[in-house]
Amino acid sequence: MAIDVGSAASNRASSYADETWLDRNNLANADGTIDHLETYTGAGDVVFGTLSGSSSPFTIRDYTGALTASAGFNSWDAPGDFTALDIVTNDGLGIYTEGALDYNSGGATLYYAASDQITGGGSATLGSSGSYTASAYGTGVEAGSGFQSAWARNANTIIG
């Protein structure tokens, strides 16, 4: 089964910069790894993390190093751009963006904090906000389903 987590990376009505966000609209549907990440943001560094827990502080299960984003839609694949992220059922996808992350009202409770709360691991203390949807999305493979690299997926070739 394919894993997906987060909300579609699209151009949304509002944006905000230099914050860590946790969008709980679409939690991980299985245990495994995330090997493809997307966001719609302003230019600057981006860090993604898999976060566990139902309220703050959230445990940071895994995170990418800084990824460079240009303004607009961006995507990255493991293993070329980052090391695949470990994820467990019901984890959320956290994101820190230097540039302005696109979001809109509606959806689940959004958690946030100023600056990068993901890099370094441990835990992230995030405040809760209203109902919002952030442009941060990831996909991957379920544990035990075999490895399929992003390159192979895009080339319509399965490597097992």
Question: Overview of this structure, please?
Answer:
The structure is a single chain. This protein is mainly beta. It has one domain (2-154). Helices cover 3% and strands 56% of the residues. The protein has one helix at 150-154; strands spanning 2-7, 14-16, 19-23, 32-41, 44-52, 58-63, 67-69, 72-77, 85-87, 92-97, 101-114, 122-124, 127-134, 136-142. Strands 2, 3, 5, 6, 7, 10, 11, 12 and 13 form a nine-stranded antiparallel sheet that branches. Strands 1, 4, 8, 9 and 14 form a five-stranded antiparallel sheet that branches. The chain is globular. It starts with a strand and ends in a 6-residue tail after the last helix. The model is unreliable at 148-160 (pLDDT under 50).
Mean pLDDT: 91
Percent of residues in beta strands: over 45%
Largest sheet: 9 strands, antiparallel
* CA distance, first residue to last residue: 15 Å
Helix content: under 10%
What structural class do the secondary elements suggest? mainly beta
List the uncertain runs: 148-160
